[in-house]
Amino acid sequence: MFQRLGLGHGIGLRATHFARFLEGRPPVDWVEVVTENFMADGGRPIAVLEKVRRDMPVVLHGVSLSIGSVDPLSESYLAGLERLVARIEPAMVTDHLCWGTQRGRYVHDLLPLPYTEESLAHVAGRVAAVQERLGRRILLENPSSYVAFRDSAMTEWEFLSELSRRADCGILLDVNNVYVSARNFGFDPLEYLDGIDAGRVGQFHLAGHSDKGRYLLDTHDEPVPPAVWELYREALRRFGRVPALVEWDDHIPPLEEVVAQSRRAAAIEAEELAPALRRAS
Amino acid sequence: MTLAETQALFHGLVTGDSPPDGTALERCFRGTDELPAAERVAIYRNMYLDRLVDALRETFPNLARFLGEERFAALGQAYLAEHPSEHHDVGRIGRRLAAFLREYPDPERPDLAALAELEWTRNVAFFAPDAPAVGADALAAVGVEGVGRARLCLARSLNVVMLEHDAASLWRRVESGEPADPPAPGPAAVAVWQRDFEVFHCSLPLVEAAALRAAMAGETLDSVCAAFGDRPDPAAEAHAALSSWFDEGWIVGVELG
């Protein structure tokens, strides 16, 4: 059965903050790194990561596994991931429910899938293959989407929940992505949360986005907005204590500001879950 | 549509490989009155170009600075149309940019290909594995009689590029915000290396570059020093070059042949 870890609250480790992490441990419980940025054998990024790993848990978060592609899984990618997992011993290995390659060409984007039985069977088989290769479960994140497919026969939350059961993987629930996609397609984000298999949720992501007028763009270049914080509260009420990460990837502010967002997530979790814990005692 | 058909269509629209086909697009994607399907797909198309041009800009900062935002974006888009990414690491997207610039040279700045090659080599050096350097005493340890047969082990980040223009000078001027000189035809040799996670480069005399390349190819010190054979004082020049290689931290070991 899927086991949720009790990691606490983390932030993304980004190059602009490397020096601060080398000076000492910031007040966060764990960090997440973009897997592909640390796959090189040498250079500063992997050296910094090895130092940080001695101080706190690390989560590897990939963007190029391309789990939904009809291309074969990339042997060189899997070998690189395997090496990094052995080197860093991450607390979790995560990627996205998406695809990004076509005949060996990478678009370096998280393209959504049509939510069909064909896709489900295809992705489930590939998740199982990756998990067998790594000897561990992975978690898949719901993407932000701007297009929907006429062929889709189920909702994203139905697809993700069924996939997690069929492939025995975890769900990385990106609360901001739920909000962005809900706005872009006009569904109720609470319906999304209600439809997710709670026992499979192993991590939350929190981030900011940009309002482009007719749609929201998942930019990770802003503080977490009030509507996403509110949805995070709703997620906590449904899923309980879940390791939560604040993502900030563009226009990255000083470390203190990112840490403050993480502390705010911890405070919200305490507010939402404390009454239930008191009742339990 | 099958999953394979859907992905082929979507990929073509995102990369620009397929011209937008309204009928196919409407058959595949669901839009809304407020945001039709074609505009939704265009969001991905625009992000594709922006993301990859940004990745190129990160790898070629001085080429981008020299060309300016608009010209660099145009170069990037033309390049991506011919050389889409074939690796999971977006940082490798620029590995053929120098060759592309040689194939389609800027008529006024034929030296931009050399600048791109220098910046790409710097990028490669940044991610090269590190090893502690050894001092000149490592050479003494092999004994006087063994020196000629000894081979040097060079830092894996070290590379010597032979360029058709003096890109090191152009790089320095752009880096420091000075106006660029006119193109300076080569050949020019540049050594690129990393130390303590910082990347450096320096111009080398062609003779020294040939000697260094021989050392990198695993030649014995006798063969390496033979590169200086036509110089007025071969022994002194070879000694000076070898000493500077040790001083720069390029040598990580000495093996007896």
Layout of secondary structure:
The complex is a heterodimer of chains A (about 280) and B (about 260).
Chain A: E1 9-12, H1 18-23, E2 30-34, H2 44-55, E3 58-61, H3 75-88, E4 92-96, E5 99-102, E6 105-111, H4 117-134, E7 139-141, E8 148-149, H5 156-167, E9 170-174, H6 175-185, H7 189-195, E10 201-206, E11 210-211, E12 216-217, H8 226-239, E13 244-246, H9 255-280
Parallel strand pairs in A: 1-2, 1-13, 2-3, 3-4, 4-7, 7-9, 9-10, 10-13
Antiparallel strand pairs in A: 5-6, 11-12
Helix pairs in contact in A: 4-5, 7-8, 8-9
Chain B: H1 3-15, H2 22-28, E1 29-30, H3 37-59, H4 61-82, H5 97-103, H6 112-126, H7 137-140, E2 151-154, E3 159-165, H8 167-175, E4 185-195, E5 198-204, H9 206-216, H10 221-226, H11 234-248, E6 251-255
Antiparallel strand pairs in B: 2-6, 3-4, 4-5
Helix pairs in contact in B: 1-3, 3-4, 5-6, 6-8
Q: What does the model show?
A:
The complex is a heterodimer of chains A (281) and B (257). Chain A contains nine helices and 13 strands. By secondary structure, chain A is an alpha/beta fold. Chain A has a single domain, classed as Divalent-metal-dependent TIM barrel enzymes (TIM Barrel, Alpha-Beta Barrel). In chain A, a hairpin with a 2-residue loop joins β5 and β6. In chain A, α4 crosses α5. Chain A is globular. The model of chain A has no long low-confidence stretch (mean pLDDT 96). Chain B folds into two domains: 95 residues, no CATH class; 145 residues. Helix content of chain B is 51%, strand content 14%. Chain B is built from eleven helices and six strands. Chains A and B meet through α2, α3, β6, α4 and β8 of A and α1, β1 and α3 of B. β8 of chain A pairs antiparallel with β1 of chain B.
Summary, kept brief:
The complex is a heterodimer of chains A (281) and B (257). Chain A is α/β, with parallel strands linked by helices. Chain A has helices spanning 18-23, 44-55, 75-88, 117-134, 156-167, 175-185, 189-195, 226-239, 255-280; strands at 9-12, 30-34, 58-61, 92-96, 99-102, 105-111, 139-141, 148-149, 170-174, 201-206, 210-211, 216-217, 244-246.
